[in-house]
Amino acid sequence: PLKLGIMASGNGSNFEAIAQAIADGQINAQIQVLIYNNPSAKAPVRAAKRGVEAVLLNHRDYKSRQVFDTKIVQTLQQYNVEWVILAGWMRVLTPVLIDAFADKIINIHPSLLPSFKGINAVEQALQAGVKIAGCTVHLVSLEVDSGPILIQAAVPVLPDDTVETLHARIQIEEHRILPQAIALAAAGQGSRGAGE
Ligand code: GAR
């Protein structure tokens, strides 16, 4: 199985979707560790229920993004992580982390990239008045919210939508395409004869 490290900042519904897909046999992978950066995040509560170890690395305790990412890399290596999944990770990554796991970091973003990069993507979509919104799973490269797109899904924007209602509709699709993308990565890894 592919050894995953998941990084989350908040609710962790995408963490849950990945854990469930593994439990259901849809992904040949195991979650080695959850890294979270906010003490009040719900993601570690979900991890505990699934028997997954959770490590709090609070960015506020580190003097630069590079020092923070160095600690993240050490932690991921300590848990023998092969692929990193950003499941609602709200910090910008530095080359320290991106180069340590080159082409093995997957991100989920709540827009149809390259539209609406950065924070508040759902709000940006509403403000732009687009009629179709969605989400993107992509490999992480050095620029924020860029890198090869793996899967996208679209949803309609309805006339009375708020950020909350539109985000909820997008998240249904996130929970489908993020596990799907990881399954593809796991299958690709297996076919290269890793023997695991
Ligand atoms: C998801 O909608 C994800 O796309 C978004 O945060 C949410 C986390 O939800 N990520 C970003 O905005 C990254 N810039 P979750 O904690 O319930 O999985």
**Backbone structural class:** alpha/beta
- Helix content bin: 25-40%
The chain-level mean pLDDT equals: 95
Number of helices: 6
Low-pLDDT runs of 5+ residues are 191-196
The count of DSSP E runs of length 2 or more, i.e. the number of strands, is 7
What's the alpha carbon Rg, rounded to whole Å?
A: 16 Å
Main-sheet strand order equals: 3-2-1-4-5-6-7
Quick summary:
The chain is of the alpha/beta class and 196 residues long. 39% of the residues lie in helices and 22% in strands. The radius of gyration is 16 Å and the shape is globular.
Please outline the helices and strands.
Layout: E1 2-8, H1 13-23, E2 29-36, H2 43-50, E3 54-56, H3 65-78, E4 83-86, H4 95-100, E5 105-109, H5 121-128, E6 132-139, E7 149-156, H6 163-191
Parallel strand pairs: 1-2, 1-4, 2-3, 4-5
Antiparallel strand pairs: 5-6, 6-7
The structure holds glycinamide ribonucleotide.
